[in-house]
Design a protein that fits this description.
The chain is α+β, with helices and mostly antiparallel strands and 474 residues long. The chain has one domain: Cytochrome P450 (Cytochrome p450). 48% of the residues lie in helices and 11% in strands. It has a 4-stranded mixed β-sheet with strand order 1-2-7-4. A 3-stranded antiparallel β-sheet has the order 3-11-8. It is globular. The N and C termini lie far apart (50 Å).
């Protein structure tokens, strides 16, 4: 599949090799692949199809079934994401994968249907509402700390904790509480049902997505046929029941995200979402609102276990601010280094490791002709490790994000950019800092308890093997 026509892998070999120990890295493709090898590689890890040359070139193009262009140049990315997003809409690949699960919701809608949903939903994610929801995040952080402490006691003073699983549990606590909590605080969607539905769907859909990208999937069942019944249908039904129940009983005393979506109106037209649109957007926020943050936190913990010096510095900051209490919204301005750790984890292991668009018309990017229908791939993983944009790109260095440190515009895009930048970015960073600071204040990371996790892309970048850490109370 990888057909780099500019042979700049030779240029990559001339750059100085980094002698220091580095965190685990995805082995990117170093040579062109045929169809059979491409499929075998994709079964192992879709991200390994990105060419190594994408970390030194501004654009890489090729064809297997359809023409594709991987774009890493900040100027071209600004054109695609910020200046002319209508010419580069969400790809048909993404829509084919996700539409059976989340309908024509905010995440995959295009054009006017996307614009009105975005206008209607945006107020739910403003700074005031996120501050009001922060106590939910603090309670989830407290519950996570209690689970870890209990496991440490059970194992006799030091425990092996899979921090990926624990962060999934913590972030699901938050998203369930701010979307589908009942009037008494009880859950209306069981975590096990939702997590199994999401995992089963994405694991299969990701395989189909690759075949779509290659243009060789005519005999492969589409995701809609694969998942017309079963877990996704059950998840739809549960969400619809929750919406109907909330409409009957009215909003909670302190409105949550479901209340805000029911009340949302497009400021320009006054249009409100119907129940199916609310359901699809709610499920979008449930999926995106817990899995991606959990991944950012899991990779943050791995990197801290990898570098004791940085871990000590982050823990010292957390302890000086919190001194044993749970973090809250008002603490965020004093937890700057903890936030820098998360920003660096998002750089090294972006949950959305690549984005896809489809060219809507003929164009030219960086002198390269682009035809209508071409696949436009934004390999965020390669962008974040690009040798011409970052110093020591494979190293873990949270001080890259220290105040006053210059970062090349459009080189750090964990939440995308432009009009379609992730609507929940502020929500995600708030909960991530609250959880990470609370746990660093209370627990010492004694190191990895096994081999490092393997970064594997299943639509998002998962730590396969788990993030197994040895943890002790402070």
């Amino acid at each position: 599949m990888i057909g780099d026509r500019q042979t700049s892998t030779q240029r990559a070999r001339t750059l100085p090799a980094c002698k220091e120990a580095l965190p685990v890295r995805v082995p990117l493709a170093r040579r062109p692949m045929g169809i059979r090898e491409t499929l075998a590689t994709a079964r192992r890890n879709v991200l390994e199809l990105v060419p190594e040359s994408a970390t030194v070139q501004p654009i890489v193009s090729g064809r297997v079934g359809r023409r594709w262009h991987m774009v890493m140049d900040p100027g071209a990315l600004r054109t695609i994401l910020r200046e002319r997003p209508g010419d580069y809409p969400k790809s048909d690949i993404t829509r084919a994968i996700l539409q059976p699960a989340i309908g024509d919701s905010l995440f995959i809608a295009n054009g006017a249907h996307w614009r009105w949903q975005r206008r209607a939903a945006a107020p739910a994610f403003n700074a005031r509402h996120i501050a009001a929801l922060a106590p939910v995040m603090s309670r989830a952080a407290e519950a996570s700390a209690a689970r870890i402490a209990a496991e440490i006691e059970r194992q006799g003073g030091e425990a092996v904790i899979d921090m990926h699983e624990e962060m999934v549990a913590a972030t699901f606590d938050i998203i369930a509480s701010v979307t589908l909590a009942g009037e008494d605080g009880s859950r209306t969607l069981a975590p096990a049902i939702v997590r199994k539905a999401i995992n089963d769907y994405l694991a299969a859909a990701a395989r189909v997505s690759l075949l779509d990208l290659l243009g060789i999937s005519s005999r492969i069942p589409r995701p809609g046929r694969l998942f017309r019944s079963g877990a996704i249908r059950r998840m739809h039904a549960l969400a619809e029941e929750a919406i109907a129940r909330r409409r009957r009983r009215g909003p909670l005393p302190e409105p949550d995200l479901l209340d805000l979506l029911i009340a949302a109106r497009d400021a320009e037209t006054g249009r409100a979402m119907n129940d199916i649109e609310i359901r699809d957007n709610l499920l979008t926020f449930i999926v995106a609102g817990h899995e991606t943050t959990a991944l950012a936190l899991a990779w943050s913990f791995y990197l801290l276990a990898f570098d004791e010096r940085v871990a000590t510095r982050a823990a010292t900051e957390a302890r000086s601010v919190l001194a044993g209490r749970v973090a809250g919204h008002d603490d965020l301005p004093r937890l700057g280094f903890v936030r820098q750790v998360i920003e660096e984890a998002l750089r090294l292991y972006p949950p959305a490791a690549f984005l896809t668009r489809t060219a809507a018309r003929h164009d030219t990017l960086l002198g390269r002709p682009v035809r209508a229908g071409d696949a436009i791939i934004l390999p965020i993983y390669a962008l974040h490790r690009h040798r011409l944009l970052w110093e020591r790109p494979d190293a873990f260095d949270p001080d890259r994000f220290a105040p006053g440190r210059p970062i090349v515009p459009m080189s750090h895009l964990p939440f995308g950019d432009g009009p379609r930048v992730c609507i929940g970015a502020r929500f995600a960073m708030t909960e991530a800092v609250i959880i990470l600071a609370t746990l660093l204040d209370r627990f010492h990371i004694a190191g990895l308890a096994g081999p490092p996790p393997r970064p594997v892309m299943i639509l998002t970048l998962h730590p396969v093997g788990g993030v197994l850490l040895r943890m002790r109370k402070r």
